[in-house]
Amino acid sequence: MTKLQGVLTALPAPLNSEGRLVLEVLERHIEDSIGAGVAGFWVSGGTGCSMYLDLPQRKQVLKETVAAVGGRVPVLALVSAMSLRDGITLAEYAGQLGVAGVSALPPIFYKTTVACTIDYLSVLRKASGLPSQPRSSSLSTRGRTLNYCTRPSGGERTSPVSSKAFRD
């Protein structure tokens, strides 16, 4: 697995007035960042306005970033989306492109359980085809902090809302 260290920067998605990706600006930003010592890139997150881009645009930003980086530094892809289906599509695509890792935010609009959140994140990780790399996180709920790990247990998780419900 890729060891991540140093400064990883979030990439903006430079768009023109028609909403098209400006590849020259993206490539120049990547080159300038690597030249300044950036050790990797985080693609398709909030800095890149990913929630305002459609699926083809997000895939294009990711593809062009991986191509411009050319394996010199790790690329991480945020695959969160408003639908699990789009998140799965992004995770699969990121895995096919050979990114160093994927990350995702948990569902944000509806109250959920820790088990459901872990299930959701596990579905996206599996779709990427990347090996599981557990990350310990904290989730604060009702004044208590729960520590959990996003590594899937291998068995079916039971929760009030399963990933199957997200897909339907």
H/E series, N to C? EHEHEHEHEEH
Distance between the termini: 33 Å
Please indicate the percent range of residues in DSSP E strands (runs of 2 or more). 15-25%
Tell me, what's the shape? globular
Oligomer kind: single chain
Helical run tally:
5
User: Which class best fits the helix and strand makeup?
Assistant: alpha/beta
Question: What kind of sheet is the major sheet?
Answer: 4 strands, parallel
Percent range of helical residues: 25-40%
Structure description:
By secondary structure, the protein is an alpha/beta fold. The protein has helices at residues 23-35, 55-69, 84-97, 114-128, 163-167, and strands spanning 8-10, 40-43, 75-78, 101-103, 136-141, 144-149. The strands form two sheets. It has a four-stranded parallel β-sheet. The N and C termini lie far apart (33 Å).
Detail the topology: elements first, then pairings.
Blueprint: E1 8-10, H1 23-35, E2 40-43, H2 55-69, E3 75-78, H3 84-97, E4 101-103, H4 114-128, E5 136-141, E6 144-149, H5 163-167
What is the structure about, briefly put?
This protein is an alpha/beta fold and 168 residues long.
Q: What structural keywords apply?
A:
four-stranded parallel sheet; 5 helices; two-stranded antiparallel sheet; single chain; 168 residues; globular; alpha/beta
